[in-house]
Write a structure and sequence with these properties.
The complex is a heterotrimer of chains A (about 260), B (about 250) and C (about 280).
Chain A (H helix, E strand, L loop, with lengths): L12 H19 L4 H41 L4 H41 L2 H7 L4 H40 L3 H4 L7 H27 L4 H34 L2
Chain B lengths: L1 E10 L2 E11 L4 E5 L6 H8 L7 E6 L2 E2 L5 H8 L2 E4 L11 H13 L3 H14 L15 H13 L5 E5 L7 H16 L4 E5 L3 H7 L2 E6 L2 E6 L1 H6 L3 H8 L9
Parallel strand pairs in B: 3-8, 3-9, 6-7, 7-8
Antiparallel strand pairs in B: 1-2, 1-4, 4-5, 9-10
Helix pairs in contact in B: 3-4, 3-5, 4-5
Chain C lengths: L7 H8 L5 H42 L6 H41 L4 H40 L2 H7 L4 H40 L3 H10 L3 H27 L4 H31 L1
The chains are: A mainly alpha (about 260), B alpha/beta (about 250), C mainly alpha (about 280).
Amino acid sequence: MSRTAFRIPAPPEVVVAPARLLGQVVRALGHRFPPSDRLFTQMHNVGNNSAVFISVTLGFLGLILVYQGCVQTLKVLPDLSGVGAAFIFAMVRTFGPTITGMMIATRVGAGIAAEIGSMTVTDQIEAMKVANSDPVSYILGPRFVSCVVMTPILWVFGTLVGVLFGYLMGHWRFGIATQTFLDLGLVSYHDVVIGFLKALSYGIVIPVLAADAGFKARGGSEGVGWATTTAVVNASFAVIVLDFVISTLSFLLGY
Amino acid sequence: MIAFQGIHKSFGDKVVLSGIDLQIRDREITFIIGASGTGKSVLMKMAAGLLTPDSGRVIVDGEDVTDFGEDRWQRIRTRYALVFQHPNLFDSMTLRENVALPLRKHRGISRKAAFFAAIEFLAMVGMEDKADLMPDEVGPSQRKRVSIARALTLDPTCAILDEPTTGLDVVASRTIDDLISRLARELGKTVVVVSHDLRSIFGVADRIIFLYKGRVHLDGPSQAFHASRDPVVRQFIGGEPDGPMET
Amino acid sequence: MPGRSLDTGPAGAAAASRRPRFLDAVSAALAIAVRPVGKGFLDACTIVGGMTLLQVRIFRAMIPPSFDYDETLRQFEKVGVRSLAVVIMTSLFVGALMLVQTGNFVRDTGATSMVGWATGLTVLAEVGPVLIGLMFSGRVGANNTAELGTMTITEQVDALRVLGIDPVRHLVVPRFVAMCVMLVLLTCIGDLFAITGAAIACQLIVGIDVRVFWQGLLEGHLVGEFVMGLVKGFFFGGAISIVSCYWGLRVEGGAEGVGRAVNNSVVTSAIAIFVVNFLVTMLWV
């Protein structure tokens, strides 16, 4: 076996460590599920506390996409009836899940990394290990579950808000009739499934990458700053890459 | 000359200073002492405009600076050398660059000339051979000495040193003491030192101000302090755990 | 404290104990429901006000220009080196992603000539600048907040003030200048790589000849959109630098405080990016 010329290169540490952490947290969750009070606190933090942030960002995104869509369409033809359907299609399938995912990576990912990072540099994680309680299951467990559950919910919420604001722009600025704009003709069952899959995968990846950065924090406030920055960049980039991978696969499979 | 008149300051519910009245006279070495948390550092930060009192006035060279904005404080602050308790060197610069920065900013001299001048100030605290190291490559006591050198670059009239010898070994502490007395005796500067170090207090102080419970408890030359019959002062000098002093 | 006026909720409810119980319950419920909204609003006002003040101080330091040139040069280098790789990788994927998305349409309608124009438009005008801005805020903005936050809690900022050096002139303005200029350049580079990514995806994934893509792109006359993207980069850079410096300079309370500040910084930057994006497009198109 060792004589074969071709060897699969070892995957980089950025992928291996989070993957190992993912395995750990899934095993820990199977072993002992976090108690509901701590779970709900985290869900509230991930979900409810992100709602305003996601409304603002997705709202502005909806406004601008419809505005650009209408202006560019008007350059070619005077008929705006197709804009709504195309916009809703793009929101459900791409912009809804991906921008929501990036916002969660930014808010929740940075939050998890900051929390775990401060615990790491103040030796609280070490103290937990000494006290024989598993930091991965105790700290990451509830956060992981809440992210996995709340990201798809926020995807639905964000997409609805984006479509609502897009509709307001289309209706008032460009006078598109309500029925014409809110046309679900282009959205098929597949698109909803793909949007959901994207959101779910982001929900799995974001907390793991953020926690990985947090556990690696070293040395005081600089370490915490480093962990938070790393979490945001890695999680956001992972969202873009996952979006690309899922989109490409679905395109190649013809859905 | 720095004067404090009726200074009150609290952080949240915690009252730190309750009516401080004192004057710091020019060309004297004044030690401000007291138990931890009696607001010695707070008082020194007020003298430099980093904190504002809840009530009372701060007067510097006859000018009431209490309500000065950041811009006007900039002008006042160049008269001070304020050395913080924790050495706060700029950690992205070498020791030489740290000392050269105020020279470049205020003297309008070239980078090269400032670097050259910086060596002299580093030599004053015996750090000239480590000029090109980064702050985290030297020990805490050496960082402290460099921060003293940096504070002295602008030829201040008054040096405020917050616990300059805390955390230093005995030899290094005596070097700092020599520096303190040289500043006052040879260079004619006003020196204010916040300290716990009894040896340096009785070695070099002209005047000692003892803060207790947010007020000035005792104010006088070091002989008066030594001779004091006050039970709180006796306990502080003796360093006994039991006594009338509340901590 | 303006927030105190809201605290009359429970006190008012207690004082009105002679009124029917039902009204008490309603006013208590209102107090619980309304207070977070009011508090959130007041917090937002404080933050926006603080950032505006910082903006004013930056402009005052720039006219006439009196800020640290060495530090500015150092920031240029730092900002560029830190973010170039992230921006290139992001752009490649974003370009490819947008092309695959357009591919769905093209497959349904058969309008292959649309591919170049549609991808170019979304990438150059909207999605490219926004995603590059978001990654830039995560990389450079967050790092900047952490750095200034550490300087604040280790009293290095106070050390500057004590030496009679204005922290805004010495620390904030160089970062402001560097980020504004660098994000324009990075958007430029990013656009290039996004188009490259799109071209690769066009040939390899969607299976349309890359020449069709180029033709569509060139015939789309997207110079205006390209320039608008650069203008967005400029304003994003300004917004990110002000937001990140603001949060960095008001850090309190050790390592935890730095973590919280970085979190706040990236969230506020993201909001700023979407709002600025909206404003620039509305005023431009």
